[in-house]
Specification:
306 residues; alpha+beta; four-stranded antiparallel β-sheet
Length: 306
Amino acid sequence: MPSRLWFRVEDVLPLAEHALACPTHRLTRAQLAAGEHNTPALTLRRAGSDGHLRSNGVPVWHTPHGDEQVAYGGAWHPVGGAVSELEQHLYLPLRHPDPDGRQLIDVLRAGRALDRTWLAIDTDTAPGCTLDAGCVELFDHRAEIVPLGTRWRPAMVTSPQTGGRDYPALVADGYDAGDDGWLICRFDPHTVRQIAAELGGPWRAGTMPGEYPLLRFDGRTVVLLEETDSADGARLDVDDRCYPDRDGYYSIGAYRWLWHTSPTGSMPTRTGLRLRLAALSGRIRERADIRRPRSQMPAADDRPSG
């Protein structure tokens, strides 16, 4: 089971601001387990690969449907794996300084200001421990797409975010994003450029602002943009970034675009063969790295993608 859970900063920061703004705070199971004072905090409930963050502020924040406002996060899910019954209840005080003097609320606000869209929370801790800012990390991309040793298989995939268009991809074999079996995919640069071109095609003029995302290349980095309608016209905001992995492939929309197998798409034979060879060479390289002494390991990419 992965030690880190991934959340969107845009989902977590409003909960933190709510906790700080509330005049009182409820006693939670996570606080009791940590033996902490009643203070503005987030509480994290983890069950297997899923995590739910809540504010402890009172009055409780509810959605228009009457449900409590929650930030959902997680990691990869084994396909067909048993649901873990083991739960963790963790306490994250917003004003509690870590050994470097950082406070969690300041880290979250910095993430928004610096366009760090992903928050990784390390839950590998003993029961009853408090999580401070030292247990979280901000990223401008979704790292840890799948565990080491994952096998990949070719498939034609599609997504609501691409308008139902089909694309060849390498799909994680044995793992999914956990939301109704959505696939975890990797695409070669040619396919990514095709996706970018088609998402920005003339058909877009007949859609609503924000109905579909846009892709832009910034050097080798792919920037995922969301369109928002405003009084001054359409505004583009950075939703995510994607960096090429060691094979040069991109995990476009991982855990965001809801990829699934195309019911109609047919992959050309040459494309399927090329993808299988890419998956095989990547697996051979990974095995060689595992067997290689640490002193001979290549320098790690400072922007990992998987």
